[in-house]
Amino acid sequence: MKTEKIDVLLGLQWGDEGKGKVVDVLTPRYDVVARFQGGPNAGHTLIFDNKKFVLKSIPSGVFQGNKQNIIGNGMVLDAALFKAEAEALEAAGIDLKSRLLISKKAHLILPTHRLMDSALEASKGSNKVGTTGRGIGPTYTDKVARTGVRVGDLLRPDFEERYAAARAAHERTLKSLNFEYDLAPLEKAWREGIEYMKQFKFVDSEHFVANLLREGKTILCEGAQGTMLDIDFGSYPFVTSSNTICAGACTGLGVAPRNIGKVYGIMKAYCTRVGSGPFPTELFDKDGEALSDRGNEFGAVTGRRRRCGWVDLVALRYAVRLNGVTDLILMKSDVLDVFKTIKACVAYKLPDGTQTDEFPFDCEGVEPIYEELPGWLTDLTALHDEDEFPEEFNNYISFIEEYLETPVSIVSVGPDRNQTIVRE
Questions:
Q1: Model's pTM, two decimal places?
Q2: Which SS3 state, helix, strand or coil, does residue 184 take?
Q3: Whole-Å CA distances, 214 to 3, 217, 344, 373, 400
Q4: Would you state the pLDDT for residue 131?
């Protein structure tokens, strides 16, 4: 029996790898693009036709003609933020209501979830995780505790009772934390968002996806954040609240493992991280500043400056194995154009003095062991074909491929849609 395949695209580092741009580039190959986890703390930035778009919850395939886009059951949605994001797209001429479907089983971020996020983060003192305050963590907590409110509940006659019960439970917690707040404006915007969201089609996404596969449709699953922020396998507890790895596509869309086809793993030519937590290759010198400035490393949602460092191949090989990556996509290569020497972390020195090339249970306090490679000192943004790559850049790509035992299939040499080179 023939098994139709779903391809998956996800980040291999600490997020911000450039997934939105790649989804936009790959979408012409697919009939459907689906998001399978995360919430509005993830910002996918796309630049084309001299316009910049930042998507937080909506799949990045909405810009490509009549492609179908799905918000899967593994996601969490804030109705107020969804309304703002969707209306901005519609104002830009995107016929969103005909292109976007929402899973009934996706969980709703309630106004009190956002307050809970801020209150709980404040209560941690110096041990803050560095959340975006969008309510994602508390919403996933309620999901696991079986007290969450889902998109499909909007269609139930007792929705108000369900919402009131959840709100009351949250307010009891907020009171216990002595957190002062004003719920009214948040709730007003949220209710307006709920009414707007009802204009979209709600579906049982697991059945919908299964039927698409039976019809022979091609599907691309779009992940958010990155592998090193996975709730199980990331640098816990400084992680997000969902499974960002390939297995999350199965649970976040209702897809059987045997249906997974290609797995595109996206990585920057260097490494960044937002928020708290260990970051073995982080740079605090002029090289780190240059990476930040040249890469315009500021969060698409929060505006926070990203921490920057050399590429970490130890963490990347760990991510490649966890996800079963078949194709690597190398992003922001042009940011390294000005460096005479480029470093790549190939092993760690642990606090006890031993060395390892395996990602450890705790990477706090590890020291990176680098190999140095000559830079290419060439403006990659001006290149249009792989044949134009300087020898040093080809050597850098080969070094990555050999260490990760995975081919680099796509190379990005600039922020625009057209600055993307597919390698033969």
A1: 0.91
A2: helix
A3: 9, 8, 44, 48, 38
A4: 66
Is 113 considered catalytic here? no
State the CB neighbour count (10 A cutoff) for residue 246: 22
HSE of 50, CA atoms in CB hemisphere, 13 A? 0
**Per annotation, catalytic residue among 16, 78, 312, 334:** 16
Q: Is 316 helix (H, G, I), strand (E, B) or coil?
A: helix
Model pLDDT for residues 139-184, shown as the tens digit of each residue: 999 999 999 999 999 999 999 999 999 999 999 999 999 999 999 9
- Rounded CA-CA distance 29/261 in Å is 14
Q: Quickly list DSSP for 291-306.
A: HHHHTT-B-TTT-PBP
Determine whether 44 is an active site residue: yes
Active-site residue identified among 24, 44, 107, 312: 44
Query: Which residue spans within 204-357 are E strands per DSSP?
Result: 219-222, 260-268, 271-273, 307-309, 311-312, 327-331, 341-349, 355-356
Please calculate the CA angle 75-307-9 and round it to the nearest 5 degrees: 35
- Compute CA 417 distance to the chain's CA centroid, rounded to the nearest angstrom: 18
DSSP characters for 61-130? GGGSTT-EEEE-TTBEEEHHHHHHHHHHHHHTT--GGGTEEEETTSEEEPHHHHHHHHHHHHHTGGG---
